[in-house]
Amino acid sequence: MEKQFIQLQLALFFKADFSGKIEDASLAIKKKFGSDMGTQILNVPSVVSSEIPRLILTSKEVDINFSKNRIDFFAKSKSFANNNVQNIFDIFNELKIEIVRVGFVLTFFKESDLSDIKSLLNNTKTDLIDLKDITVRLNKEEDVKGLKFNNSQMYVSGSVKDNDGSSKNGVIITRDINSLVGDVDKNNFTKEKLENFLEKALELAEISLI
Fold first, then answer.
1. Tens of pLDDT, residues 23-34
2. Per-domain residue ranges for the chain?
């Protein structure tokens, strides 16, 4: 059975914490993704970690979490990120935000038993024990036009629910392509650089061992 696409996540990390008004961020985002987006501004104390969302926006196309040091897009279309680079940079230009790190994640589900994950391991050893769950994570460092990034893939035994509420057992596949944490001081993502990264990330994320 073919794997089924579940969700895209695009995480963009800021060079410095956003110090503007959250209301201004909300307006800038809605200009590009819809004025009718569901909006929740969270009253978060200033001492709370910059990673915690200060603004949550929702729509049929995309859900967005805006924090002081990052923005996360969650979409049901694999091409969402690649199709919206201009919109994203219009928002950042208005809010005076610079991007130094990117994470691109696609999540898939494949209905199967544990044999698919076991095929990645040494079967002579795993067959000797009665396994209920398996998690396998692999990572490879790659390079796109001088930009180094992690090409990570994780396989986890799990289940998802069908539209009728019934559960299916299988493998949750996470393909995570992200620029290196250690390179944030030298990475400054222009529109062209982000487009190049996302084009390669989408190509790689479609590839999996299961």
1. 999 999 999 999
2. 4-205
